[in-house]
Amino acid sequence: MAFCEGLTKLEAQEMKEAFDLFDMNGDKRICSKELGSVLRAIGLNPTEKSLKEMLVKFDKNNSGFIDYDEYLECLDNFTCSSQEIEVQLRQAFLFFDKDKNGQLSIKELQNVLVSMGEPLSYKETADILKLADTNHDGKLDADEFTKFLCEKV
Asked: DSSP E strands: which ranges in the chain?
C-alpha cells in the first residue's frame, strides 16, 4: 500500500470512500467492470483500453475482482511524483511565458487561468498574483509559479 504513504489522511479517506461506494456487499472488493466508475469518481479518466490493461496487470489472483490493495496499485499508476509535477509545471510556465522573459505578467497570468478554466477578472487575477508573488516584484518567475501551484495541488 505504498500509494497511501504519500497522501494526507483526508486524501486517503477519499480514496477509501470512493472504493467503498462501489463495494456494495462490503466484501472489500469491487467487480472489475466497476473499476472505471471508481476511478472516475475520484477525478481520473481512464480509457476502456487502459482499464482492460489495468485488470490484467492488477487483478493478481485472476478473480475478476479488484480488492482494495489492488485498487491502490491502480491509483499509483495514475499519479505523478512531486518531482514530475514540478517538471510539468515548469514546462507549463515556459509555454505561458509568451515574451520569454522568465516572468509572467498579470496579463500572461490571466491567460494561464483562462486556459485552466478559470476566467477571472483583472482584480481577481491581481489578488492571485499578490498571493504567489513572494518577491513582490509584480510578476511571477518560474519558482514562484511552481511553488504556488504545488501548494494548491
From this structure: 29-31, 65-67, 103-104, 140-141
